[in-house]
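@channel sequence for tomorrow's demo:
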Amino acid sequence: MSRKEQNWHGVRKEFDMMKRITGFVVLILLCILFQGQAEIIDKPVVRIKLIKTEIVYQSEFITIVESMENKMKRPLSLEQKKVILDKLVEEKILVQAATGDNIRVSQSEIDAKTKQIKQLLELQEGRKYTDAEFKDRVLKQATDTTWNDLLEQVKNSVLQEQYLMEKKGDK
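structure tokens (generated this afternoon):
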């Protein structure tokens, strides 16, 4: 096995271990959530530290779950909640890893990705959107967020893609 393959295998093993830990954390979180407490104190659910310490708080997780439940118009299962937390942790780890590898995203890359999302929406809905209509449409769909928050999500998405492509190229 080549050195690159060994490195990739090591990264994969670490990531799998983190997923198992995340699963355990989800179970603990759900036990806390369903104890029938009327008042929820914002507690850390997961601490992530690759480059810097980031904490996923209970309130952040609950907001995401409630948003998904509102969109789906039904409660999420325990397994679905676990998947949401796994994805949230995975995204934060990838962004930190990309930052640690000095991967940068330019404004033109963010604009290109936003344009790609707009074109996909236009294709799905069979109509063209002006930039203002697109922004309004997206903000209506993504309740409890701002346009700048959405652009930050787009930036993080591009950052993750670039990081994964770079690591894939290192194989």
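heads up for whoever presents: The CA atoms of residues 8 and 65 lie 32 Å apart.
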